[in-house]
Amino acid sequence: MPAIEILGLEKTYRVGFWRKLPKRALHPLHLTVEDGEIFGFLGPNGAGKTTTLKLLMGLVFPTSGSARILGHEWTDPQVKAQIGFLPEQPYFYDHLTAHELLEYYGQLSGVPAKDRKRRVEEVLQRVGLRDIRGVQLRKFSKGMLQRVGIGQAILHDPKLVFFDEPMSGLDPMGRREVRDLMEQLKNEGKTVFFSTHILSDAEALCDRVAIVHRGELRGVGRVADLTSTVQGKVEVIWQGIVIPASMKALGAECHVTGDTVRAVIAESQQDAAIDALRRERQRLIAITPVRTSLEAYFFEKLQRAETTAGRTA
Amino acid sequence: MTQRRKTSIVAAACLILSLAASIVVLRRSDQARPQATLDEVLFLSSPTVIKRASLGYDGLLACIYWTRAVQYFGNRHHNYAASYNLLAPLLEITTNLDPHLLVAYQFGGSFLAPKPPVGAGQPERAIQLMEYGIQNNPDDWHLYYNLGFVYYMDVKDYGKAAQTFERGSKVPDAHPFMKVMAAQMAQHAGEFGMARELWTATYQTTQDKLIRENAVDHLLALRVEEGVTHLQQGVTRFGERTGRLPVSMAELATAEDLPGIPVDPNGKPYRLTPEGRVEVRDPDDFHFLSKGLPPGYKPPDKYRPLP
Amino acid sequence: MKARVAHIAFNTFREAVRDRVLYNLIAFALLLSGAAILVGQISIDIEKLVVINLGLTTVSLFGVVIAIFIGIGLVSKEIEKRTLYTVFSRPVRRWEFIVGKFFGLAGTLVVNSFFMAIGVFAALFYVSHKFVRADGLILIALYFIILEFLIVCSLALLFSSFSSPLLSAVFAFSLFVVGSFAEDLRNFAGMAHGISRTLATGAAYLVPNFSAFNVISSIAHEQPIAGQLVMHNTLYALFYAIMALSGAVLIFEYRDLK
Questions:
Q1: C-alpha distance from A57 to closest chain B C-alpha (Å)
Q2: Overall number of domains in chain B
Q3: Is residue B9, in this structure, part of any structural domain at all?
Q4: Running DSSP on this structure, what letter comes out for residue B268?
């Protein structure tokens, strides 16, 4: 059973003084997220990622369409007990301490009283906020708030967790921690759905991704598949600063970086290159196939969308 | 049905039901409470204080106090109240807030001076109020009229009344009858004709319902009194001629050469008692009668609008 | 379901108590009660009168300000600050949120009034040096004041459910002022004709009618209060609050939380 099935969810806002101008935040979206995967929802700012999340959370009502979450209608209150949500740049009741906030959310999520205390402690430990007791949230830094946010999202042990731009505003260490956490969640058998515009994170973490732009879905697929368009090239890296003439003869594009040289050559010439380097007694460091990066795929999809829009405009 | 729809239906039902219930409770509450949130305690009864507290919204507050004055008076009037202590302060506050609210002066003129249960029985305050009105609206002849009226009807100072009408007649756009009244007052003070003219003028120059009702009541009473007076004089004449009292109204009518049995404005014939008194058949039909009433007559407890 | 409402109510109460603005307002109100003592001393006879009148009026006015201040923060501010996102991703119904907030605020106001009332009684004791039976009437006046608060709260919630914090405060306060003159509005409606009569009558019944709630000057003169009035006021406050809250629930049910 898929964790999430989005069946044509659409959202059009009416803006303007008389609320006459339609603004399409999301075109009818069809998407499926499988159980137990980490799914990345990618797109530039304003693409409709947050809108989609808000629709799924029931914060905003769709113009048309529906969705199923964990097999139930997305409006079914039962569902809420099994999902967690971390909004983008979250705000919390800043008169509360982290402990009190989690207690409160635990109450609202229906975590039984006898388990609550223990769970809160566990979660605070897990997100690294154990030592901050009695400090009101108004005094928390951005990173700390993000951790609290993650805490409240996983407090009630949900089967499916939604993160909206979870890495935003975090320092490299924080981002690392969040990435590790998401991996852990996956290992625990949970499904993770997160939206981001940082492609490297998505590439590293996700099993599958979807790309949205201007409220429309542009592409979906496994990361491995999307980036496996082998261009038929390999990258050769060797130590030193010397570029042997034989390499140049192979038509290689060579770059010197520090004390290593990189050269991109056709895959068919791989063996010839290795021979050339051995002859010249250059120390080979690595040979890697050149894959399309997710970034390239991303931009290609976006560009195609722009040109289509340009043609129809 | 979705949860949302269920909740909405319940909420909508609650809203309508509770709105209806609140209105019902409100009406019951109104009925149960004695009139006037004013109680007999007008905590702020000083006009100057109220004016200062009004923060410049004088006009609005004047309207509010005016409505309260009318409500206060109207309710008590219907119950033939024995006192109207708050009427003067209310009118004073109203006119202090809005010195140009003419109807308030007219009201004061009609109801501050006469004695209870008709009015508050405070002619000096009525005069004060009128003078204040004249000060602030020197070009409005109505105010002179009201003041003169009070002098004539309630204070019975015919000299001052004539003077006031004279003053008023000098105002540009004054109604012609001002001059006429000023002149007539001197000669015909105390006569029916004068009174009738004044009440008619009052009726014609106001829009306020209560004041008009009052004027009509007075006019009717005047007709009755006139009728009774003439008939009584007829009885006296009869007595002088024949040395006895007429046995019936019919005999009197014949003797006086009247077209038929004299009737009151409601069409009911006047009575002639064995003692020779002319009386109204149904005194309850009229207000303000001072003649033609049977001895020991007490007016009813509640004000009934006349047929 | 009820548990969630109770939790929301408690959290609201806790939030209000930790809001430092609240303390400033209470302190100011207490100060004013003290000032009443000074004012009263200007004329010996009416000392007690001034203390009761000024003291209770202060409780009433400040309470309304607090009710509106915190009331609008309840929903409008929460939406603006997006604290609601993580609340509604949980199994919390929207109506539970509104109702819970209402009870939390009501509780805050009752506790608040309690403290301010102590100030009034203290001032009263200071000028009279004893309590008489008639002083018990002050409690009834306070009860009516609390009923007024409940109505104002429910209105603040109603406006918060669709309006910005500033506008909500303006609307709620305006309705409070109009409600104080509601009886005059009804008198006016009685004297009007045609369409203005219909409109005025409609308005007069829709706005909260506070006229019957203000017994401050009566009890200052030690006039008794009819039991019927207590019953009527209680019922009216109850129905009116239910009405406003139902409206809030209805609106909020359909609102997009952007």
A1: 14
A2: 3
A3: no
A4: P
